[in-house]
Specification:
With about 150 residues, this protein is an alpha/beta fold. It has one domain (about 5-150): Flavodoxin domain (Rossmann fold, 3-Layer(aba) Sandwich), CATH 3.40.50. The protein has 5 helices and 7 strands; from the N terminus they run βαβαββαβαββα. Helix 1 packs across helix 5 (about 130-150). The structure holds flavin mononucleotide. Flavin mononucleotide binds next to helix 1, strand 3 and strand 5.
Length: about 150
């Protein structure tokens, strides 16, 4: 069964509310036969990545970049997964207080290096997530799951 791996750093309610919606969308009953696995970024391993077929990545913006936790995840998995995971689909959700540009650029650079294939526009939210923002998170999860459905 294809597996969707969600790797996230959720240190606060705002990012966590986005994660909850992403997971809810990914588990939509409209998509069947896709296994959903969620891992905190500081616990996710290269084996988790190798054993999955697609990825959803979530992080706050921290100091103009991705969170250290998601950067640590990429540092850990980059070379062990570089050859085997090329062209696999991924989606991204980010949250910041006012500016996610650096985090967005960093994620683009790293995932381009991995040759991962972006499935839809990243969901980037600044400030308190609105209902519409959370709907976009749900949609991101559902699209990711549908991408892996066989
Ligand atoms: C150390 C630190 C650095 C941060 N740097 C940024 C930043 O560069 N850009 C930004 O938009 N938000 C920044 N933030 C805000 C976080 O992105 C925000 O706290 C996080 O997304 C969770 O949102 P919440 O605190 O409203 O729940 C920073 C927060 C911390 C703790």
């Amino acid at each position: 069964m294809p597996r969707l791996l969600v790797v996230h750093h959720t240190p606060s309610p705002a990012v966590h509310s986005m994660l909850d919606k992403v997971l809810e969308g990914a588990a939509t009953p409209q998509v069947t036969g896709v296994e959903l696995v969620s891992r905190a970024a500081l616990t996710a391993s290269p084996v988790d990545v190798l054993e999955a077929d697609g990825y959803l990545l979530g992080s706050p913006a921290n100091l103009g970049y991705l969170s250290g936790a998601l950067k640590h995840f990429f540092d850990t998995i980059y070379y062990p997964c570089l050859n085997e995971t090329a062209r696999r689909p991924f989606g991204l959700f980010l949250h910041g207080n006012d500016d996610c540009a650096g985090a967005l650029a960093a994620a683009a650079k790293i995932t381009t290096g991995l040759s991962w294939r972006q499935i839809s526009e990243p969901v980037v939210v600044t400030g308190a997530p609105s209902t519409e923002d959370l709907d976009r998170c749900w949609e991101l999860g559902a699209v990711a799951a549908a991408t892996l459905e066989r």
